[in-house]
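User: Sequence recovery, please. Input:
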Protein backbone atom coordinates (compact mmCIF):
# COMPACT_ATOMS: atom_id res chain seq x y z
CA UNK A 1 0.00 0.00 0.00
CA UNK A 2 1.24 3.47 -0.86
CA UNK A 3 1.32 6.22 1.75
CA UNK A 4 1.31 9.84 0.77
CA UNK A 5 4.34 11.53 2.28
CA UNK A 6 3.17 14.07 4.89
CA UNK A 7 4.78 16.86 2.93
CA UNK A 8 2.36 16.40 0.07
CA UNK A 9 -0.62 17.08 2.35
CA UNK A 10 0.78 20.56 2.97
CA UNK A 11 1.34 21.09 -0.73
CA UNK A 12 -2.21 20.00 -1.43
CA UNK A 13 -3.61 22.26 1.28
CA UNK A 14 -1.65 25.22 -0.03
CA UNK A 15 -2.88 24.55 -3.52
CA UNK A 16 -6.44 24.26 -2.30
CA UNK A 17 -6.20 27.45 -0.29
CA UNK A 18 -4.88 29.49 -3.18
CA UNK A 19 -7.39 27.92 -5.54
CA UNK A 20 -10.17 28.86 -3.15
CA UNK A 21 -8.90 32.43 -2.97
CA UNK A 22 -8.95 32.59 -6.75
CA UNK A 23 -12.40 31.03 -6.79
CA UNK A 24 -13.65 33.66 -4.37
CA UNK A 25 -12.41 36.41 -6.62
CA UNK A 26 -13.68 34.73 -9.75
CA UNK A 27 -17.17 34.12 -8.39
CA UNK A 28 -17.96 37.77 -8.91
CA UNK A 29 -17.41 37.43 -12.63
CA UNK A 30 -20.14 35.14 -14.02
CA UNK A 31 -23.29 36.93 -14.90
CA UNK A 32 -26.70 35.37 -14.59
CA UNK A 33 -28.02 37.47 -17.42
CA UNK A 34 -27.61 35.40 -20.56
CA UNK A 35 -28.98 36.16 -23.96
CA UNK A 36 -32.04 33.96 -24.51
CA UNK A 37 -31.17 30.92 -26.59
CA UNK A 38 -33.23 30.38 -29.73
CA UNK A 39 -33.32 26.57 -29.90
CA UNK A 40 -34.46 23.99 -27.37
CA UNK A 41 -31.06 22.31 -27.21
CA UNK A 42 -29.12 25.52 -26.67
CA UNK A 43 -31.65 26.75 -24.12
CA UNK A 44 -31.42 23.51 -22.13
CA UNK A 45 -27.62 23.56 -22.32
CA UNK A 46 -27.54 26.83 -20.39
CA UNK A 47 -28.37 24.87 -17.27
CA UNK A 48 -26.25 21.86 -18.25
CA UNK A 49 -29.18 19.85 -19.57
CA UNK A 50 -30.06 18.43 -22.96
CA UNK A 51 -33.25 18.60 -25.01
CA UNK A 52 -33.84 15.61 -27.24
CA UNK A 53 -36.22 13.98 -29.65
CA UNK A 54 -36.98 10.53 -30.96
CA UNK A 55 -35.98 10.07 -34.60
CA UNK A 56 -37.24 7.57 -37.16
CA UNK A 57 -34.69 6.44 -39.75
CA UNK A 58 -37.25 6.34 -42.57
CA UNK A 59 -37.98 10.06 -42.17
CA UNK A 60 -34.40 11.31 -42.29
CA UNK A 61 -34.50 12.21 -45.97
CA UNK A 62 -37.50 14.47 -45.37
CA UNK A 63 -35.56 17.72 -45.22
CA UNK A 64 -38.15 19.65 -43.19
CA UNK A 65 -37.94 16.91 -40.58
CA UNK A 66 -34.18 16.53 -40.46
CA UNK A 67 -33.59 20.30 -40.52
CA UNK A 68 -35.77 20.83 -37.46
CA UNK A 69 -34.33 17.81 -35.69
CA UNK A 70 -30.72 18.87 -36.19
CA UNK A 71 -31.41 22.51 -35.34
CA UNK A 72 -33.50 22.16 -32.20
CA UNK A 73 -32.27 19.07 -30.38
CA UNK A 74 -28.98 17.84 -28.94
CA UNK A 75 -29.97 14.35 -27.81
CA UNK A 76 -31.40 11.68 -30.09
CA UNK A 77 -33.30 8.48 -29.32
CA UNK A 78 -34.02 5.93 -32.06
CA UNK A 79 -37.81 5.60 -32.06
CA UNK A 80 -37.68 1.91 -33.04
CA UNK A 81 -34.29 1.16 -34.56
CA UNK A 82 -32.44 0.05 -31.43
CA UNK A 83 -35.18 -2.22 -30.09
CA UNK A 84 -34.58 -5.98 -29.90
CA UNK A 85 -36.67 -6.83 -32.98
CA UNK A 86 -34.66 -4.33 -35.02
CA UNK A 87 -31.20 -5.31 -33.81
CA UNK A 88 -31.40 -9.12 -33.58
CA UNK A 89 -33.95 -10.32 -36.15
CA UNK A 90 -32.58 -13.87 -36.01
CA UNK A 91 -30.99 -15.42 -32.96
CA UNK A 92 -27.28 -14.74 -32.99
CA UNK A 93 -27.50 -12.48 -36.05
CA UNK A 94 -27.34 -8.81 -35.25
CA UNK A 95 -28.32 -6.17 -37.77
CA UNK A 96 -27.17 -2.70 -36.82
CA UNK A 97 -27.90 -0.99 -40.10
CA UNK A 98 -30.85 1.20 -39.11
CA UNK A 99 -29.59 1.72 -35.55
CA UNK A 100 -26.29 2.90 -36.98
CA UNK A 101 -28.10 5.11 -39.45
CA UNK A 102 -29.61 7.01 -36.50
CA UNK A 103 -26.35 6.96 -34.56
CA UNK A 104 -24.31 8.27 -37.49
CA UNK A 105 -26.85 10.92 -38.43
CA UNK A 106 -26.80 12.22 -34.86
CA UNK A 107 -23.10 12.11 -34.15
CA UNK A 108 -22.15 13.62 -37.52
CA UNK A 109 -24.13 16.64 -36.34
CA UNK A 110 -22.57 16.68 -32.88
CA UNK A 111 -25.71 15.33 -31.20
CA UNK A 112 -25.63 12.69 -28.51
CA UNK A 113 -27.59 9.44 -28.50
CA UNK A 114 -29.64 7.59 -25.87
CA UNK A 115 -30.00 3.87 -26.48
CA UNK A 116 -33.56 2.49 -26.35
CA UNK A 117 -34.06 -0.32 -25.32
CA UNK A 118 -32.32 -3.60 -24.37
CA UNK A 119 -34.89 -5.69 -22.50
CA UNK A 120 -38.63 -5.22 -22.98
CA UNK A 121 -41.74 -7.38 -23.22
CA UNK A 122 -42.74 -5.63 -26.49
CA UNK A 123 -41.07 -5.40 -29.89
CA UNK A 124 -39.13 -8.60 -29.36
CA UNK A 125 -38.16 -10.53 -32.48
CA UNK A 126 -40.42 -13.51 -33.12
CA UNK A 127 -37.82 -16.05 -32.07
CA UNK A 128 -37.46 -14.36 -28.69
CA UNK A 129 -41.21 -14.15 -28.08
CA UNK A 130 -41.43 -17.90 -28.19
CA UNK A 131 -38.64 -18.53 -25.68
CA UNK A 132 -38.98 -18.95 -21.95
CA UNK A 133 -37.06 -19.99 -18.85
CA UNK A 134 -33.30 -20.26 -18.85
CA UNK A 135 -33.21 -20.22 -22.64
CA UNK A 136 -34.83 -16.77 -22.70
CA UNK A 137 -32.69 -15.59 -19.80
CA UNK A 138 -29.57 -16.48 -21.78
CA UNK A 139 -30.98 -14.85 -24.91
CA UNK A 140 -31.55 -11.62 -22.96
CA UNK A 141 -27.97 -11.68 -21.67
CA UNK A 142 -26.61 -12.41 -25.15
CA UNK A 143 -28.68 -9.60 -26.63
CA UNK A 144 -27.41 -7.09 -24.09
CA UNK A 145 -23.82 -8.19 -24.64
CA UNK A 146 -24.09 -8.16 -28.43
CA UNK A 147 -25.73 -4.75 -28.67
CA UNK A 148 -23.63 -3.06 -26.02
CA UNK A 149 -20.40 -4.36 -27.52
CA UNK A 150 -21.36 -2.70 -30.81
CA UNK A 151 -22.13 0.66 -29.19
CA UNK A 152 -19.52 0.45 -26.44
CA UNK A 153 -18.29 3.89 -25.34
CA UNK A 154 -20.59 5.67 -27.78
CA UNK A 155 -23.93 6.31 -26.10
CA UNK A 156 -24.88 8.72 -23.33
CA UNK A 157 -27.27 6.23 -21.75
CA UNK A 158 -29.15 2.99 -22.35
CA UNK A 159 -32.69 2.17 -21.33
CA UNK A 160 -31.65 -1.25 -20.06
CA UNK A 161 -35.14 -2.33 -19.05
CA UNK A 162 -38.39 -0.81 -20.30
CA UNK A 163 -41.90 -0.99 -18.84
CA UNK A 164 -41.56 -3.90 -16.40
CA UNK A 165 -44.30 -2.86 -13.94
CA UNK A 166 -48.09 -3.04 -13.75
CA UNK A 167 -50.20 -0.03 -12.83
CA UNK A 168 -50.58 -1.29 -9.25
CA UNK A 169 -46.83 -1.50 -8.70
CA UNK A 170 -46.49 -5.24 -9.11
CA UNK A 171 -44.30 -6.73 -11.84
CA UNK A 172 -45.83 -7.01 -15.29
CA UNK A 173 -46.18 -10.61 -16.32
CA UNK A 174 -44.17 -11.27 -19.45
CA UNK A 175 -41.91 -13.94 -20.80
CA UNK A 176 -38.98 -12.05 -19.24
CA UNK A 177 -40.67 -11.88 -15.82
CA UNK A 178 -41.28 -15.62 -16.18
CA UNK A 179 -37.54 -16.23 -16.13
CA UNK A 180 -37.43 -15.14 -12.48
CA UNK A 181 -37.91 -11.95 -10.49
CA UNK A 182 -34.19 -11.19 -10.68
CA UNK A 183 -34.27 -10.67 -14.47
CA UNK A 184 -34.08 -6.88 -14.14
CA UNK A 185 -31.03 -6.88 -11.92
CA UNK A 186 -29.35 -9.46 -14.13
CA UNK A 187 -29.97 -7.17 -17.10
CA UNK A 188 -28.36 -4.22 -15.28
CA UNK A 189 -25.36 -6.21 -14.06
CA UNK A 190 -24.81 -7.59 -17.55
CA UNK A 191 -25.08 -4.10 -19.01
CA UNK A 192 -22.57 -2.55 -16.61
CA UNK A 193 -20.01 -5.23 -17.41
CA UNK A 194 -20.63 -4.88 -21.15
CA UNK A 195 -20.11 -1.10 -21.28
CA UNK A 196 -19.01 0.66 -18.11
CA UNK A 197 -18.97 4.02 -19.89
CA UNK A 198 -22.69 4.50 -20.44
CA UNK A 199 -25.44 5.41 -17.99
CA UNK A 200 -27.86 2.59 -17.26
CA UNK A 201 -31.52 3.59 -16.96
CA UNK A 202 -34.81 2.00 -16.00
CA UNK A 203 -37.57 3.52 -18.18
CA UNK A 204 -41.36 3.44 -17.75
CA UNK A 205 -44.64 5.32 -18.25
CA UNK A 206 -47.23 6.34 -15.65
CA UNK A 207 -44.58 6.81 -13.00
CA UNK A 208 -44.96 10.60 -12.92
CA UNK A 209 -47.54 10.78 -10.12
CA UNK A 210 -45.86 10.21 -6.76
CA UNK A 211 -48.93 8.72 -5.12
CA UNK A 212 -49.57 6.18 -7.90
CA UNK A 213 -48.97 2.49 -7.24
CA UNK A 214 -46.72 2.00 -10.26
CA UNK A 215 -44.49 4.90 -9.23
CA UNK A 216 -44.09 3.35 -5.80
CA UNK A 217 -43.31 -0.04 -7.28
CA UNK A 218 -40.53 1.35 -9.45
CA UNK A 219 -39.24 3.56 -6.62
CA UNK A 220 -38.98 0.57 -4.29
CA UNK A 221 -37.05 -1.41 -6.89
CA UNK A 222 -34.56 1.44 -7.44
CA UNK A 223 -34.15 1.88 -3.69
CA UNK A 224 -33.50 -1.83 -3.32
CA UNK A 225 -30.98 -1.78 -6.21
CA UNK A 226 -29.09 1.14 -4.71
CA UNK A 227 -29.01 -0.50 -1.27
CA UNK A 228 -27.63 -3.75 -2.68
CA UNK A 229 -25.19 -2.23 -5.16
CA UNK A 230 -27.03 -3.33 -8.30
CA UNK A 231 -25.65 -0.93 -10.94
CA UNK A 232 -28.23 1.66 -11.99
CA UNK A 233 -27.61 5.30 -12.87
CA UNK A 234 -30.90 6.78 -13.98
CA UNK A 235 -34.66 6.55 -14.19
CA UNK A 236 -36.46 7.59 -17.35
CA UNK A 237 -40.00 8.85 -16.90
CA UNK A 238 -41.63 8.51 -20.30
CA UNK A 239 -44.10 11.35 -19.60
CA UNK A 240 -46.75 10.39 -22.12
CA UNK A 241 -49.62 12.57 -21.03
CA UNK A 242 -52.79 11.32 -22.62
CA UNK A 243 -56.33 10.31 -21.76
CA UNK A 244 -56.61 10.03 -17.98
CA UNK A 245 -52.94 10.77 -17.47
CA UNK A 246 -51.88 14.39 -17.35
CA UNK A 247 -49.30 16.47 -15.54
CA UNK A 248 -49.65 15.63 -11.84
CA UNK A 249 -49.17 18.42 -9.28
CA UNK A 250 -46.58 16.29 -7.52
CA UNK A 251 -44.40 15.60 -10.58
CA UNK A 252 -41.45 17.53 -9.14
CA UNK A 253 -41.78 15.57 -5.89
CA UNK A 254 -41.53 12.34 -7.86
CA UNK A 255 -38.40 13.54 -9.67
CA UNK A 256 -36.86 14.71 -6.39
CA UNK A 257 -37.63 11.46 -4.62
CA UNK A 258 -36.07 9.34 -7.35
CA UNK A 259 -33.04 11.64 -7.49
CA UNK A 260 -32.63 11.40 -3.72
CA UNK A 261 -31.96 7.67 -4.18
CA UNK A 262 -28.76 8.64 -6.00
CA UNK A 263 -29.85 8.32 -9.63
CA UNK A 264 -30.26 10.85 -12.41
CA UNK A 265 -33.75 11.35 -13.76
CA UNK A 266 -34.81 12.28 -17.28
CA UNK A 267 -38.09 12.79 -19.12
CA UNK A 268 -37.63 10.38 -21.99
CA UNK A 269 -40.69 10.23 -24.29
CA UNK A 270 -42.68 13.38 -23.71
CA UNK A 271 -45.90 14.00 -25.61
CA UNK A 272 -49.08 15.71 -24.36
CA UNK A 273 -52.57 15.45 -25.83
CA UNK A 274 -53.18 18.61 -27.89
CA UNK A 275 -49.88 20.02 -26.62
CA UNK A 276 -51.31 21.81 -23.60
CA UNK A 277 -48.97 24.77 -23.07
CA UNK A 278 -49.43 24.67 -19.32
CA UNK A 279 -48.58 20.97 -19.15
CA UNK A 280 -45.53 21.40 -21.37
CA UNK A 281 -44.32 24.40 -19.36
CA UNK A 282 -45.06 22.59 -16.10
CA UNK A 283 -43.23 19.40 -16.96
CA UNK A 284 -40.23 21.43 -18.18
CA UNK A 285 -40.19 23.50 -15.00
CA UNK A 286 -40.42 20.39 -12.81
CA UNK A 287 -37.26 19.05 -14.48
CA UNK A 288 -35.48 22.41 -14.20
CA UNK A 289 -36.26 22.51 -10.49
CA UNK A 290 -34.48 19.22 -9.82
CA UNK A 291 -30.69 19.36 -10.21
CA UNK A 292 -30.44 15.68 -11.12
CA UNK A 293 -33.05 15.97 -13.86
CA UNK A 294 -30.53 15.91 -16.69
CA UNK A 295 -32.71 16.39 -19.76
CA UNK A 296 -35.99 16.13 -21.61
CA UNK A 297 -36.76 14.17 -24.79
CA UNK A 298 -39.96 14.58 -26.81
CA UNK A 299 -41.24 11.52 -28.66
CA UNK A 300 -41.00 12.86 -32.20
CA UNK A 301 -40.54 16.09 -34.14
CA UNK A 302 -43.84 17.14 -35.79
CA UNK A 303 -47.38 16.10 -34.87
CA UNK A 304 -47.50 14.14 -38.10
CA UNK A 305 -44.46 12.10 -36.99
CA UNK A 306 -46.00 11.10 -33.67
CA UNK A 307 -47.14 7.57 -32.78
CA UNK A 308 -50.22 9.41 -31.47
CA UNK A 309 -50.55 11.78 -34.41
CA UNK A 310 -54.32 12.11 -34.02
CA UNK A 311 -53.70 13.79 -30.64
CA UNK A 312 -51.32 16.45 -32.03
CA UNK A 313 -49.06 16.03 -29.00
CA UNK A 314 -45.69 17.48 -30.10
CA UNK A 315 -43.97 20.87 -30.34
CA UNK A 316 -44.10 21.34 -34.14
CA UNK A 317 -47.20 21.10 -36.33
CA UNK A 318 -47.40 18.91 -39.40
CA UNK A 319 -45.88 21.66 -41.54
CA UNK A 320 -42.94 22.09 -39.20
CA UNK A 321 -44.14 25.34 -37.59
CA UNK A 322 -43.39 25.99 -33.93
CA UNK A 323 -46.52 25.59 -31.82
CA UNK A 324 -47.46 27.58 -28.72
CA UNK A 325 -46.21 24.70 -26.61
CA UNK A 326 -42.77 25.11 -28.20
CA UNK A 327 -42.61 28.69 -26.98
CA UNK A 328 -43.75 27.73 -23.49
CA UNK A 329 -40.96 25.16 -23.25
CA UNK A 330 -38.30 27.46 -24.71
CA UNK A 331 -39.25 30.28 -22.34
CA UNK A 332 -39.07 27.99 -19.32
CA UNK A 333 -35.65 26.71 -20.39
CA UNK A 334 -34.36 30.23 -20.97
CA UNK A 335 -35.53 31.35 -17.53
CA UNK A 336 -33.66 28.55 -15.74
CA UNK A 337 -30.75 29.13 -13.40
CA UNK A 338 -27.49 28.37 -15.20
CA UNK A 339 -25.50 25.25 -14.36
CA UNK A 340 -27.24 22.96 -11.90
CA UNK A 341 -25.19 20.94 -9.48
CA UNK A 342 -23.13 18.59 -11.62
CA UNK A 343 -24.54 15.11 -11.54
CA UNK A 344 -22.54 12.06 -10.66
CA UNK A 345 -23.32 8.52 -9.74
CA UNK A 346 -20.57 8.48 -7.14
CA UNK A 347 -21.75 6.99 -3.89
CA UNK A 348 -18.78 7.50 -1.60
CA UNK A 349 -16.75 10.67 -1.85
CA UNK A 350 -13.61 11.09 0.24
CA UNK A 351 -13.88 14.23 2.33
CA UNK A 352 -10.23 15.17 2.60
CA UNK A 353 -10.59 18.03 0.13
CA UNK A 354 -13.28 20.68 0.15
CA UNK A 355 -16.25 20.06 -2.08
CA UNK A 356 -15.64 21.94 -5.27
CA UNK A 357 -18.26 24.28 -6.53
CA UNK A 358 -18.05 25.04 -10.23
CA UNK A 359 -16.19 28.26 -10.69
CA UNK A 360 -14.45 30.18 -13.37
CA UNK A 361 -10.71 29.65 -13.59
CA UNK A 362 -8.01 32.25 -13.52
CA UNK A 363 -8.68 34.57 -16.44
CA UNK A 364 -6.70 33.41 -19.44
CA UNK A 365 -6.88 35.33 -22.63
CA UNK A 366 -4.14 33.25 -24.10
CA UNK A 367 -3.44 29.56 -23.98
CA UNK A 368 -2.59 27.42 -20.99
CA UNK A 369 -1.05 24.07 -20.45
CA UNK A 370 -3.09 21.66 -18.38
CA UNK A 371 -0.64 20.12 -15.97
CA UNK A 372 -1.40 17.04 -13.88
CA UNK A 373 -0.54 17.67 -10.22
CA UNK A 374 0.51 14.09 -9.64
CA UNK A 375 2.48 13.51 -12.83
CA UNK A 376 3.75 16.99 -13.66
CA UNK A 377 2.87 16.03 -17.24
CA UNK A 378 0.63 17.93 -19.64
CA UNK A 379 -2.61 17.03 -21.38
CA UNK A 380 -1.43 16.43 -24.93
CA UNK A 381 -2.97 15.50 -28.28
CA UNK A 382 -0.93 12.54 -29.54
CA UNK A 383 1.14 13.25 -32.67
CA UNK A 384 -0.44 16.71 -32.93
CA UNK A 385 -3.39 14.95 -34.55
CA UNK A 386 -6.27 17.16 -35.61
CA UNK A 387 -8.67 14.28 -36.25
CA UNK A 388 -12.01 14.15 -34.51
CA UNK A 389 -11.99 11.44 -31.87
CA UNK A 390 -8.28 11.49 -31.03
CA UNK A 391 -7.97 10.60 -27.34
CA UNK A 392 -5.83 12.91 -25.25
CA UNK A 393 -3.00 11.66 -23.07
CA UNK A 394 -0.41 12.78 -20.54
CA UNK A 395 2.96 13.75 -21.98
CA UNK A 396 6.06 15.68 -20.94
CA UNK A 397 5.19 19.37 -21.11
CA UNK A 398 6.77 21.13 -24.08
CA UNK A 399 4.32 23.97 -24.75
CA UNK A 400 3.72 23.19 -28.41
CA UNK A 401 0.32 23.72 -30.00
CA UNK A 402 -0.92 20.23 -29.19
CA UNK A 403 -0.59 21.11 -25.49
CA UNK A 404 -1.99 24.65 -25.65
CA UNK A 405 -5.56 24.92 -24.40
CA UNK A 406 -7.75 28.00 -24.12
CA UNK A 407 -10.55 28.13 -21.57
CA UNK A 408 -13.34 30.14 -23.17
CA UNK A 409 -16.17 32.08 -21.59
CA UNK A 410 -18.50 29.29 -22.67
CA UNK A 411 -16.40 26.79 -20.67
CA UNK A 412 -14.81 25.08 -23.63
CA UNK A 413 -11.17 24.04 -23.61
CA UNK A 414 -10.10 24.69 -27.18
CA UNK A 415 -6.96 23.57 -28.98
CA UNK A 416 -5.75 24.53 -32.49
CA UNK A 417 -8.41 27.27 -32.50
CA UNK A 418 -11.53 25.33 -33.40
CA UNK A 419 -11.24 21.95 -31.76
CA UNK A 420 -12.52 21.23 -28.26
CA UNK A 421 -11.75 18.90 -25.41
CA UNK A 422 -14.73 16.54 -25.68
CA UNK A 423 -16.13 13.70 -23.59
CA UNK A 424 -16.98 10.69 -25.78
CA UNK A 425 -19.55 9.52 -23.20
CA UNK A 426 -20.57 10.47 -19.71
CA UNK A 427 -20.00 7.34 -17.65
CA UNK A 428 -16.94 6.20 -15.73
CA UNK A 429 -14.16 5.37 -18.13
CA UNK A 430 -15.46 7.48 -20.99
CA UNK A 431 -12.75 8.61 -23.35
CA UNK A 432 -11.70 12.27 -23.38
CA UNK A 433 -10.79 13.30 -26.90
CA UNK A 434 -10.65 16.26 -29.27
CA UNK A 435 -13.57 17.05 -31.52
CA UNK A 436 -14.70 20.01 -33.62
CA UNK A 437 -16.33 22.49 -31.24
CA UNK A 438 -20.12 22.20 -31.39
CA UNK A 439 -21.37 23.99 -28.28
CA UNK A 440 -22.69 20.81 -26.65
CA UNK A 441 -22.38 20.17 -22.94
CA UNK A 442 -19.98 17.26 -23.41
CA UNK A 443 -17.51 19.94 -24.54
CA UNK A 444 -18.03 22.17 -21.51
CA UNK A 445 -15.85 21.93 -18.43
CA UNK A 446 -15.94 23.38 -14.94
CA UNK A 447 -12.55 24.28 -13.52
CA UNK A 448 -13.23 23.64 -9.84
CA UNK A 449 -11.82 25.24 -6.74
CA UNK A 450 -10.22 21.97 -5.57
CA UNK A 451 -8.15 21.65 -8.73
CA UNK A 452 -10.37 19.20 -10.54
CA UNK A 453 -11.86 19.74 -14.00
CA UNK A 454 -15.33 18.25 -14.38
CA UNK A 455 -17.57 17.79 -17.40
CA UNK A 456 -20.74 19.90 -17.40
CA UNK A 457 -22.70 17.04 -18.90
CA UNK A 458 -21.38 14.15 -16.86
CA UNK A 459 -20.38 15.82 -13.61
CA UNK A 460 -17.39 13.49 -13.76
CA UNK A 461 -13.76 14.57 -13.48
CA UNK A 462 -10.77 14.34 -15.78
CA UNK A 463 -8.84 11.37 -14.40
CA UNK A 464 -5.76 9.33 -15.22
CA UNK A 465 -4.82 5.89 -13.95
CA UNK A 466 -1.09 6.60 -13.89
CA UNK A 467 1.55 9.26 -14.39
CA UNK A 468 3.64 8.14 -17.37
CA UNK A 469 3.86 9.43 -20.91
CA UNK A 470 0.95 8.07 -22.93
CA UNK A 471 -1.48 7.65 -20.03
CA UNK A 472 -4.95 8.20 -21.48
CA UNK A 473 -7.28 10.74 -19.92
CA UNK A 474 -10.78 9.56 -19.02
CA UNK A 475 -13.84 10.64 -17.06
CA UNK A 476 -14.35 9.25 -13.59
CA UNK A 477 -16.46 9.99 -10.50
CA UNK A 478 -14.84 13.00 -8.82
CA UNK A 479 -12.95 11.97 -5.70
CA UNK A 480 -10.56 14.90 -5.27
CA UNK A 481 -7.49 12.66 -5.32
CA UNK A 482 -4.19 13.70 -6.87
CA UNK A 483 -4.73 11.85 -10.16
CA UNK A 484 -7.75 14.08 -10.76
CA UNK A 485 -6.09 17.41 -10.06
CA UNK A 486 -4.86 19.56 -12.93
CA UNK A 487 -3.67 23.14 -13.11
CA UNK A 488 -4.14 25.58 -15.93
CA UNK A 489 -0.76 27.26 -16.30
CA UNK A 490 -0.57 30.18 -18.71
CA UNK A 491 1.89 29.66 -21.54
CA UNK A 492 3.69 32.72 -22.75
C1 LIG B 1 -43.41 3.34 -29.99
C2 LIG B 1 -43.04 3.96 -31.33
O1 LIG B 1 -43.18 5.35 -31.22
C3 LIG B 1 -43.90 3.40 -32.42
O2 LIG B 1 -43.43 3.84 -33.68
C4 LIG B 1 -43.90 1.88 -32.38
O3 LIG B 1 -44.84 1.41 -33.31
C5 LIG B 1 -44.27 1.38 -31.02
O4 LIG B 1 -43.38 1.94 -30.06
N1 LIG B 1 -43.05 3.46 -24.91
C6 LIG B 1 -41.80 3.24 -25.42
C7 LIG B 1 -41.55 3.47 -26.85
O5 LIG B 1 -40.88 2.93 -24.66
O6 LIG B 1 -40.58 2.60 -27.36
C8 LIG B 1 -42.81 3.37 -27.66
O7 LIG B 1 -42.51 3.75 -29.01
C9 LIG B 1 -43.88 4.24 -27.07
C10 LIG B 1 -44.21 3.80 -25.67
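Assistant: Recovered sequence (492 residues):
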Amino acid sequence: MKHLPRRSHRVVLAAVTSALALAGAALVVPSLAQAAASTLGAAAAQSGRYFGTAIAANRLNDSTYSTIAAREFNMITAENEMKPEALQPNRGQFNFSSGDQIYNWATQRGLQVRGHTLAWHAQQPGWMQSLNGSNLRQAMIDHINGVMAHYRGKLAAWDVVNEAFNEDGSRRSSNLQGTGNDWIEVAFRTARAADPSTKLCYNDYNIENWSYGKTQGVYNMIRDFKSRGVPIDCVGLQTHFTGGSSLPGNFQTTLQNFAALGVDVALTEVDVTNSSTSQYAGLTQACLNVPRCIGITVWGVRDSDSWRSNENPLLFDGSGNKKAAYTSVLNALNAATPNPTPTTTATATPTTTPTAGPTTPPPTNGASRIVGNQSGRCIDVPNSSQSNGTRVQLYDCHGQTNQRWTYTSSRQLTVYGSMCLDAAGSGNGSAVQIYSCNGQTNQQWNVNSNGTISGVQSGRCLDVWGTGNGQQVQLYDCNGQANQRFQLVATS
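Residues 6-26 form the longest helix (21 residues).
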